[in-house]
Amino acid sequence: MLFRNKKLEMPSRETALPGRPGHILPATAEHHLLGRPLIGPYPAGTERAIFGMGCFWGAERKFWQAGPGIWITAVGYAGGFTPNATYEEVCTGRTGHTEVVLVVFDPSTLSYGTLLKTFWESHDPTQGMRQGNDVGTQYRSALYWTTPAQRAEAEASKAIFQRRLAEAGFGRITTDVMEAPPFYFAEEYHQQYLAKVPHGYCGLGGTGVTCAQPTGVDAG
């Protein structure tokens, strides 16, 4: 995935590629490690959260290793205009999508705050349209919340981490923090890629700055 995309400007809805109506991931696809359906349905009581932090191969591994409470992880595309885009289309820069990880988790076992800590500490959220050597809109940092409580906690954690980054000499966080847009599953060969290819490429690199989990957040 190194240097595959040099596109640094987002397309408009009018100039984006048209995409297609159906999933490009087979409906029967299962998590390579957990043996559960990727597309769902997911159990009652679970929540969805979506994170973009550069190359989704390494990002997904961070979340399936987050511990008990993970139902499934899956990689895909979000934040753009092209429905059910292919990887090749995303790489053109003409879909507007960033590479993301869908995390379905049991909040009674694994807190959203723990996932946020993994997110902030596992990449550099100040780099704009890139992550390390991976350059382009598809590698931008994104934090997509799915509930009002997630929104409050995500915004609080961003403020905390921004202060800590500034103290360490880093610049402004460029992460998109917004309500989750449609999530489009990536091709089956991308799913849990680093479990299938343990020594495959991973371009993630954190800042070395730690992020405390926010407490007492009013989800109002």
3D structure, described in words:
- With 220 residues, the chain is an alpha+beta fold.
- The protein has a domain at 47-196: Peptide Methionine Sulfoxide Reductase, Chain A, CATH 3.30.1060.10.
- It has five helices and eight strands.
- It has a six-stranded mixed beta sheet with strand order 7-6-1-3-2-8, covered by helices on one side. It has a two-stranded antiparallel sheet with strand order 4-5.
- β4 (130-131) and β5 (134-135) form a beta hairpin.
- α3 packs parallel to α4 (148-167).
- The radius of gyration is 16 Å and the shape is globular.
- It starts with 46 loop residues before the first strand and ends in a 24-residue tail after the last helix.
- Mean pLDDT is 93; it is low at 1-5 and 216-220.
Q: Return the average pLDDT rounded to an integer.
A: 93
| Global structural class | alpha+beta
Query: How does CATH name the architecture of the domain at 47-196?
Result: 2-Layer Sandwich
Global shape? globular
Summarize the structure.
This protein has helices spanning about 55-65, 85-90, 110-120, 150-165, 195, and strands at about 45-55, 70-80, 100-105, 130, 135, 140-145, 175-180, 185. It is α+β, with helices and mostly antiparallel strands and about 220 residues long. Helix 3 (about 110-120) packs parallel to helix 4.
